[in-house]
Amino acid sequence: QPKTQTTVKYGSLTPKHRTDSAMVNFRNYGLGQFIHWGLYAIPGNEWEGVSARKGAAASEWIRSWSGPTAPENWKETYDKLYQQFNPKAFDAKAWARQAKEMGAKYLIFTTKHHDGFALWPSRYSDYNISASPYKKDIVKEVVDAYTAEGIDVFLYFSVLEWNNPDYMLKAPQTEAEKKRFQRFLNYTKNQLLELLQNYPQIKGFWFDGTWDQSWIQAYPFTYALEKELRDKHPGLIIGSRFRNDEHGKRHFDSNGNLLGDYEQGWERKLPGDYSWLNGNDWDAVMTIPPNGWGYMKDWSGLYTKTTDDLLEMLLQAVSMNGNFVLNFGPDGQGNMHPEEDTIASELGQWMQKNGEAIYGASHADLPISKYGYYTQKEGYLYLTVFNRPVNNILRIALPKNSKEVPVAAELLAGGEPLLLKHSEIGLDLDKQAYYDIQLPRGFQTDRAFVV
Ligand code: FHN
């Protein structure tokens, strides 16, 4: 029996599958870069030699450091860090070049994280970059540099603001609380309209910090605000974290329909199966360390993902019609972590040779391959191999009545033709037709490859 539909007045404002050019481009990105940068980069998850690992949930949450390891009067200390924020090594053009060489097609950049410090000279809060020794508009430098490199920019915006006296966790009850929180809502709206006005090149917002009841209960306001943002910036892309329906349902409304233009729930994890996505657009955002989006001085003792780990996650995402967004957390001077530089370079070398299997590619409706991940584009089927068979034969299983069958095969990098044999092996039990692709004897590679 179909599930009974719930009346939803404050549901999605856009169709499930937008076909406008902005959203088509979003679907084709494949690989993105996330950058978490702000005052939390100055301590780098420690202070005066003491690690915050045991006292804060993540490096960019270091303001909330508590417990026996937390320094005396830590929040007061943190809230003065802006007075020393003067990233001498910051070069937005160098970041953008690195992202271009890595093969990223979009950037998600933190304009303001939960600590409320704005990296742009906001007219609506004095707690912003112009109050720091650096003074200049970092958001503008980043938006201009990445746009100049042809990389689309999305702005990360945290609604939650730990140090804003008008913010509250619970829904406002008293008249005074309602007045106070309404002031916060208006402030949030003003900052968002300001970002759209200052940086018209941007393609969308990546919202965060929208889980408290104060915001959840403000659904009439957030519904109207989303409409206003979209009216002001036609084609704007807004993810599923921005708001909820009147029943408090976030990401998906009470009938399971996506709220926003793409699902933002895949953070530090990937869907196990294509069917979980219900045909929705989505991105997965990923840290190199286990957790920690802002700069961490010390990665020792942590499993930090290798380039091969990240390549496999990229293919897993693209094979299921998602984008994969890798996070970088520059230090307080504007330098990327040396490990981030290495990974960016190695990913870029691979994307240079194999990007055709990623950009604009989509899910192929085939049985899961034990060798790796299928993607498809314009009549081509790509198999990115992570698990190379010892007999050097890659077996493609297709339903017997497939209309499209492979007629030739080649190594994507270099274009070497490969022997393709159609072998109806009589394993009728699974009604598949098999195509065997013979890898060349002596074919050497130490990283995933694409046929
Ligand atoms: O609390 C934030 C966290 O600091 C980080 O910004 C991530 C990035 O997706 N989002 C929130 C946790 O879900």
TrEMBL record:
Any Pfam family the entry gives: Alpha_L_fucos
Function: Alpha-L-fucosidase is responsible for hydrolyzing the alpha-1,6-linked fucose joined to the reducing-end N-acetylglucosamine of the carbohydrate moieties of glycoproteins.
Protein name (database record): alpha-L-fucosidase
InterPro entries cross-referenced by the UniProt entry: FUC_metazoa-typ, GH, Glyco_hydro_29, Glyco_hydro_29_N, Glyco_hydro_b
Source domain of life: Bacteria
UniProt record similarity statement: Belongs to the glycosyl hydrolase 29 family.
Record EC number: 3.2.1.51
Keyword Hydrolase attached: yes
Molecular function, one GO term: alpha-L-fucosidase activity
Organism of this sequence: Sphingobacterium humi
GO biological process entries: fucose metabolic process; glycoside catabolic process
Entries under PANTHER family matching the protein: ALPHA-L-FUCOSIDASE, ALPHA-L-FUCOSIDASE-RELATED
Boundaries of every Glycoside hydrolase family 29 N-terminal domain copy: 3-356
UniProtKB keywords: Glycosidase, Hydrolase, Signal
GO cellular component: lysosome
